[in-house]
Specification:
Layout (H helix, E strand, L loop, with lengths): L2 H10 L12 H21 L3 H5 L4 E2 L5 E2 L14
Antiparallel strand pairs: 1-2
Length: about 80
Amino acid sequence: MSFMPTVASLASAGTETVRELPIPAWSYGALALAGFMLLLGVLWSFRNTAAKHDTPIRVTHAGQSDRRSANGANNPGAHH
C-alpha cells in the first residue's frame, strides 16, 4: 500500500460532509413500485382495444366480400 493515498484518506476523513435524504431510503423503492403499478394500470385499461374497434370484412366461399360469415353469425373464425 502506498503512503500518499493513506495520508490523503486520513487527512480528509474528518471533513467529509453527509447529506441526509429527504425521505427514508426504503420509500424510494415504494414510490418506484407505486409508479410502475400506476403505469401497469394505464396499460391494462387499454387491453383488447384493437379487437373492440376492429370490424374485419370477411370473404365468403364464393369469393364475395361479406360482413357476415357463412352461418350468419358475426364471429371471427365462424366460417364452417
